[in-house]
Design goal:
This protein is an alpha/beta fold. It has a single domain, classed as DHBP synthase (Alpha-Beta Complex), CATH 3.90.870.10. It has a six-stranded mixed beta sheet with strand order 7-4-6-5-10-11. A five-stranded mixed beta sheet has the order 1-9-2-3-8, with helices on both faces. Strand 10 and strand 11 form a beta hairpin. Helix 1 crosses helix 6. The longest helix is centred in the N-terminal third of the chain and has 12 residues. It is globular and about 50 Å long.
Amino acid sequence: MVHRGVVLKVSEESISKAAEKVRSGGIVVYPTDTVYGLGCNPYNVEAVRRLIKVKGERRKPLPILASDLNAAARIADFSREAKLLASRFWPGPLTLVLKSKGTLPPEVTSGLNTVGVRVPDNVVALKLIRLCGGLLVGTSANKTGAEPPRSVQEAFKQLGEEVDLYLDGGVSRIGVSSTVLDLTSGKPKVLREGPVKIGDLLKLLDTL
């Protein structure tokens, strides 16, 4: 019998269990610096399809969380601007939308040639991502259109036993979704304002 909806307090053992679950094609909820994430192996098409079903009616590409810049560079092309922003704001609450290297399945990118990626500033998330091979789907752990959860309880209330395992790491430090900056069209375009302020991004880009 498959047990789903298991909630475990964060520990070395529970992080390993969550990584094992991801590696075997499962779906997990985990803490990040911003809000709780819903994750699976981005290369496992069946897991990605299941995650999209759990999330419900999602038509947007899935963002990817990376363990570091090198891992992120496996799936995205980093321009000078992107490298500069990553070196200043990662790990942290900034998602960069970049040209994809075409290695991810179309289920993740919605068939686009771009991908949203970031390195989170949370030790649990980073440890989990590293154990999963450096990349993990990082969409927020809510039903589409609902409020992104800041705690495992809020996530469970929305997703329940549709998820295999939940890692409880307390309340998210920031509590709002990341800033999203699109660098794919020549001119930086803000898709979502979040914890990183637009003025700070533009000020840094002006130094180039």
